[in-house]
Design a protein that fits this description.
Distance between the termini: 14 Å
Number of strands: 6
Order of helices and strands: EHEEHHHEHEEH
Largest sheet: 3 strands, mixed
Number of helices: 6
Radius of gyration: 17 Å
Number of domains: 1
Strand content: 15-25%
Oligomer: single chain
CATH class: Alpha Beta
Strand order of the largest sheet: 1-2-3
Helix content: 25-40%
């Protein structure tokens, strides 16, 4: 039954993450390279925030539509740090949490993903896509 399935059984275990000292230009590169929408931010081995691609787009104020977009974005990104743009009050779930509870959090909060923890250690990311894939696989 779905209420008994743990988040750890469907989460992404290979985590692409940022260090608090990384640049927003590096964040954009990771978003594009790995085709992801959320990056956990780590400092001293601890989760300190999460940066979404939407957060990054919000600060890209200039939209020229021309050949200089990369230069303009880099200039804008250099005006901010990851710490200034990221969400600091991160909602997480524990790895043993049921996918039902995690899905309820995602729906109630309007999230697209949740960092998954074992204690205070980041061990995975659960996305709404992970939940939908699980449902498709198990709804016959």
């Amino acid at each position: 039954m779905i209420k008994d399935i743990q988040v750890s059984s469907i989460m992404a275990k290979e985590i692409v993450k940022l260090n608090l000292t990384d640049s927003l230009t590096n964040a954009e590169k990771l978003f594009k390279e790995f085709k992801i929408k959320h990056l956990p931010v780590i400092s001293g081995g601890k989760l300190v925030g999460i940066l979404s691609y939407t957060d990054l787009i919000r600060i890209s104020l200039a939209e020229t539509g021309g050949d200089n977009d990369d230069i303009i974005n880099t200039t804008v990104y250099n005006m901010f740090s990851i710490e200034q743009v990221m969400i600091k009050d991160v909602v997480t779930v524990q790895a043993e949490c049921s996918i039902k509870v995690a899905a309820e959090i995602i729906i109630d909060k309007g999230f697209r993903s949740l960092p998954v923890m074992e204690g205070d250690i980041l061990v995975g990311m659960l996305t709404s896509t992970d939940l939908i894939k699980y449902l498709i696989k198990h709804c016959n």
